[in-house]
Write a structure and sequence with these properties.
The complex is a heterotetramer of chains A (251), B (60), C (226) and D (214).
Chain A lengths: L2 H11 L3 H33 L13 H28 L2 H33 L7 H22 L3 H33 L14 H33 L4 H9 L1
Chain B lengths: L6 H6 L4 H43 L1
Chain C lengths: L1 H20 L1 H20 L4 H22 L3 H8 L2 H6 L5 H30 L7 H26 L5 H28 L5 H30 L3
Helix pairs in contact in C: 1-6, 2-3, 2-6, 3-6, 3-7, 3-8, 6-7, 6-9, 7-8, 7-9, 8-9
Classes of the chains: A mainly alpha (251), B mainly alpha (60), C mainly alpha (226), D alpha/beta (214).
C-alpha cells in the first residue's frame, strides 16, 4: 500500500468513534504516566534544584508553571481551530469532539497563565496587575476561549454548535496574530521597554532544562485529559450503540 | 536540599514564598479541577447509557 | 447577471427599511452622543484632561455604538423567513453578507463619522487631529461591521444572542481600537500616523476579502439550528 | 419525464431522535408531491435538508440525477421556495416586497406585479404597506411570486396557511396549472387537494416503530 493510501486509511479511521474508543484505551497510560513523571521531575528540579534568579530571586520559579501554561493555551487554540476546520470540511465527528473539549482545557490553561502572571507581577512590579503586552494578550486569549464556550453552550443543536464554534475559532486563529501585534504596538506606545517577566537574555541550562521538561509534561497531560474527555463524549453521544453498551456493561 | 539550606528556607523562598506557593496552588486547583471534571462527565455519560440500556431491556 | 440584481435589490430594500424604521439610524447615534457625554461628567470637564483621553473616548464610544445595531443585522430577516429565502436563492451567500455589511456601515457607521467632529470639539480634541479622526473612523467602522457580521450570523436565532454577540466580537475589535486611537494620539503628539492608518486600511481590505465568506458559512450553519 | 429532485433511502436524525428512515421519493415534471405527517414527523426538516440548510442526513439526494450538493447553484436557480414564514417585510409595500423577492431571478416590471397581485385577489394593494394587511393577505403577497417567476420546481411549506376559501381554490388552480405545464411541485399541507396529479408521501410510515402506535 502506498504511503498516501495508508495515510488516507489512517485519517479516515479517526472518523470512527469506535476505533478511537478502543485504541485510546491503550494510549492513555502512554500519555498519563510520562506526563506525571515529567511533571514531577520538572517540579522538583524547578522548585528545588534550579538556581535562584539574580534579579528576581525565588519568585522566578513561577516560570515553570506560567510559561508552559501560556504556551499550551496558545497551542490548544490552534488545535481547536484545526480540529474545527477538519469537522467543517470532512465532517469527522471525532474532530468535533476534540474541538469541543479543547475549549475548556485551553481556557483553564489560559487562566493559569494569567493568574500566575499576575501573582508573579506582585514581587516583580510591586502590583498584582500591570498592562503588560503578554498578560494583556493572554487576557484576550481567555476572552476568545470564553466566547467559544459561551457560543457552544448557547446553541441547542449539537452539530450546529460544533460548526458555529469551528468558524468562531478559525476567525480567532486568524485574528490572534493581528491582536498580538496590535497589543505589542500599543504597549510600546505607552510604556516603552519596561522589565519583562520572562524575557531573559540568556538562561543557564539548569534553568531552561526543567522548563523544557515542564512544557513537554504539560503537552502530554493535555493529550491525556483531552483523550479522557473525548472518551466520555463518545459515551455521551454513542449511548445507543451496541458495541459500546457491550464494552461498558461487561466491565 | 538543592538550592536551599533547610526545609524552612524552601518554604520561605527568600521572602517570595507567598507568591510562589500561591501560583502553584492556583495551578494545582485548576488542574485538579480539570481531572475531577473529566471523572464527573464520564460518570454522567455512563449513567445515561446504563439507563438507556435498562429501559430498552424493560421494553423488550 | 441576476445575482447582481439581487444584491442591489437587497441593498436598496435594507436601506429603505432603515429609513422607514429610523430607530436603526437614530439609536446608535444617540447612544454615541450620550456615552461621550458621560465622560466629562464622570472624569473631569477640564479641557486638558479631556483632550488627553478624547481619542480613546471617541473610539470606544464609536465601537459600542456600532455594536448596538449589529445584533439586528440578520435577526429580523431570520424571524420573518427572509434570510432562509435569500440563502436558497441564486444569489451567493457572500453577496448577502456584503449587502448587510454595507447597509450596516451606511446606516450606523457613517452617521457617527458625521457627528464625530462635533463631539471631538466638545472633548477639546486638538483641531489638527480631526482629519485623521475622520479617516480612521472611515477605515475602522467598516472593519467593525465586517467582523460584527460574522458574530451576528453566528448568533442569529439564538435566544440569548443579543447578550452573546458582544462577548464574541469585542476581542476582534481590539486591533481596530488600538490602531484608531493610536493614530489620533500620534497626531496629538506630532508623530507620523501613516503607519497606523495604513495598518487600518490593510485590516479593512483583509476583512473585506475574508469576512463575507466566513459570514455566509456561519449563516448557513446557523440555519441548521432552527 | 424528468426527475428534478430525487430522494433515496433518506434518514434524518435530530438531536439523537430518529425522525424517519428509508424515505424514497422523487419530484418529477408534471407531478405534485404532497408531504403529510403528524406534527414533528420531520416535514420541515426534510425540506430544510433538501435546501441544504441541515447538513446531517444519511442517504442520497439528487438534482436531475446528479448529487444535489454538487448541483446546488443549478438547483437554486430553478427553484421557487416559499417557506411557512412568508418572508414578507411588514414595513415595505406589496410591490417593494415582490421586487426584492424576485430580483435575484429576473427583473419584473410594476405592471407584472400589478397583474400578479390581481390574480391573488390583492388588486389595489400594490402600494399598501404589508403591516396594514392581514396574515392571509401577507401570505397572498408571497404567493403572487407563483405568477411572477417562471421556475420549474416549487417547494411550498404550508402554502394554504391563513388563506380563505377563495384563495385556496385559486392556489390549487395555479398548482394544477403549473403541473400541467410540466412543472414539479413539492408541498406540505394537511389540506385535501382537488388535483389529479397529486402523490402523497406520509412521513409517519417511515417513522421508527413505536411512534406510529402512540
Amino acid at each position: 500500500m502506498s504511503f498516501k493510501a495508508k495515510f488516507k486509511r489512517w485519517f479516515h479511521s479517526w472518523a470512527s468513534p469506535k476505533w478511537f474508543f478502543e485504541k485510546s484505551e491503550r494510549w492513555l497510560p502512554w500519555l498519563g504516566v510520562p506526563a506525571l513523571s515529567l511533571l514531577a521531575i520538572g517540579l522538583v528540579w524547578g522548585l528545588i534544584f534550579a538556581p535562584e534568579d539574580y534579579q528576581q530571586g525565588n519568585s522566578f520559579r513561577i516560570i515553570y508553571l506560567h510559561v508552559p501554561a501560556a504556551i499550551l493555551s496558545q497551542s490548544i487554540f490552534m488545535m481547536m481551530a484545526v480540529a474545527g476546520a477538519i469537522n467543517l470540511i470532512w465532517r469527522i465527528k471525532l474532530a468535533d469532539m476534540a474541538a469541543k473539549h479543547c475549549a475548556p482545557i485551553g481556557a483553564s490553561f489560559a487562566f493559569i497563565a494569567l493568574a500566575t502572571g499576575a501573582i508573579w507581577g506582585k514581587p516583580t512590579w510591586g502590583t498584582w496587575w500591570v498592562w503588560d503586552a503578554r498578560l494583556t494578550s493572554m487576557l484576550i486569549l481567555l476572552f476568545l476561549y470564553l466566547g467559544v464556550i459561551a457560543l457552544y453552550s448557547a446553541i441547542d443543536n449539537r452539530e450546529t454548535a460544533g460548526r458555529s464554534t469551528a468558524i468562531l475559532s478559525l476567525v480567532g486563529l486568524v485574528n490572534i496574530p493581528i491582536i498580538k501585534y496590535s497589543v505589542e504596538l500599543w504597549n510600546t506606545l505607552h510604556q516603552p521597554a519596561t522589565f519583562k517577566l520572562t524575557e531573559k537574555p540568556s538562561m543557564p541550562a539548569e534553568m531552561w532544562v526543567p522548563l523544557l521538561i515542564m512544557v513537554i509534561g504539560f503537552y502530554l497531560f493535555f493529550g491525556w485529559i483531552l483523550f479522557k474527555r473525548m472518551r466520555a463524549e463518545v459515551i455521551e453521544r454513542e449511548f445507543k450503540a451496541k458495541w459500546l453498551q457491550k464494552k461498558l456493561i461487561e466491565n | 536540599m538543592g538550592e536551599f539550606e533547610s526545609f524552612q528556607a524552601f518554604i520561605e523562598m527568600g521572602g517570595h514564598g507567598l507568591y510562589v506557593w500561591l501560583a502553584y496552588a492556583v495551578g494545582a486547583v485548576v488542574i485538579g479541577g480539570n481531572i475531577w471534571w473529566v471523572g464527573r462527565i464520564r460518570k454522567l455519560a455512563e449513567q445515561r447509557l446504563r439507563k438507556y440500556v435498562r429501559r430498552q431491556e424493560l421494553e423488550g | 447577471m441576476p445575482a447582481d440584481l439581487g444584491f442591489f435589490a437587497l441593498l436598496s430594500r435594507d436601506i429603505k427599511l432603515a429609513f422607514r424604521q429610523k430607530s436603526d439610524i437614530i439609536n446608535p447615534l444617540m447612544f454615541f452622543v450620550m456615552v461621550i457625554t458621560l465622560f466629562p461628567l464622570g472624569v473631569s470637564p477640564d479641557p486638558n484632561e479631556l483632550a488627553a483621553i478624547a481619542p480613546g473616548i471617541i473610539w470606544v464610544a464609536a465601537l459600542l455604538a456600532s455594536m448596538l445595531s449589529m445584533e439586528n443585522m440578520f435577526r429580523s430577516d431570520f424571524e420573518d423567513g427572509s434570510l432562509e429565502r435569500m440563502l436558497v436563492s441564486p444569489m451567493p451567500g457572500f453577496l448577502i453578507a456584503i449587502a448587510k455589511v454595507v447597509t450596516h456601515f451606511l446606516v450606523t457607521g457613517l452617521p457617527l463619522v458625521f457627528i464625530a467632529p462635533v463631539l471631538a470639539y466638545m472633548l477639546s480634541l486638538p483641531s489638527e487631529a480631526y482629519g485623521v479622526m475622520v479617516i480612521s473612523l472611515l477605515l475602522g467602522l467598516p472593519t467593525l461591521s465586517l467582523v460584527g457580521a460574522i458574530g451576528s450570523a453566528l448568533t442569529v436565532g439564538l435566544k440569548r444572542g443579543a447578550l452573546l454577540l458582544p462577548l464574541l466580537v469585542i476581542p476582534f475589535f481590539i486591533p481596530v481600537l488600538i490602531f484608531g486611537t493610536g493614530a489620533l494620539q500620534g497626531v496629538i503628539m506630532e508623530q507620523p500616523v501613516t503607519g497606523q492608518l495604513s495598518l487600518m486600511a490593510a485590516l479593512l481590505l483583509f476583512s473585506l476579502a475574508s469576512a463575507p465568506f466566513a459570514c455566509s458559512a456561519s449563516l448557513k450553519i446557523s440555519m441548521g439550528n432552527g | 419525464m424528468t426527475d428534478y429532485l430525487s430522494v433515496d433511502n433518506l434518514l434524518i436524525e435530530r438531536d439523537d431522535r430518529l425522525l424517519f428512515k428509508g424515505l424514497t421519493f422523487s419530484v418529477s415534471a408534471g407531478k405534485v408531491l404532497q408531504l403529510v405527517g403528524r406534527n414533528g414527523s420531520g416535514k420541515t426538516s426534510l425540506i430544510r435538508t433538501l435546501l441544504g440548510l441541515m447538513p446531517d442526513f444519511e442517504g442520497d439526494l439528487c438534482w436531475k440525477g446528479k448529487p444535489l450538493h454538487q448541483e446546488r447553484d443549478d438547483f437554486f436557480s430553478h427553484l421557487l421556495y416559499i417557506g411557512h414564514k412568508a418572508s414578507i417585510k411588514s414595513a415595505l409595500t406589496a410591490t417593494e416586497n415582490l421586487e426584492w423577492l424576485t430580483a435575484a431571478y429576473r427583473k419584473v416590471t410594476y405592471f407584472e406585479i400589478e397583474q400578479a397581485l390581481e390574480k391573488v385577489g390583492l388588486r389595489g394593494y400594490e402600494d399598501v404597506e404589508c403591516h396594514s394587511m392581514s396574515a392571509g393577505q401577507n401570505r397572498r403577497v408571497a404567493l403572487a411570486q407563483l405568477y411572477l417567476l417562471d421556475l420549474p420546481v416549487w417547494i411550498l411549506d404550508e402554502p394554504f396557511t391563513a388563506i380563505d376559501l377563495a384563495g385556496v381554490e385559486q392556489l390549487e388552480a395555479r398548482i394544477a396549472e403549473h403541473a400541467e405545464q410540466g412543472g414539479a411541485i413539492l408541498l406540505t399541507t394537511h389540506h385535501v387537494m382537488n388535483i389529479d396529479a397529486v402523490t402523497k408521501v406520509n412521513l409517519d410510515e417511515f417513522a421508527p416503530r413505536g411512534r406510529n402506535a402512540s
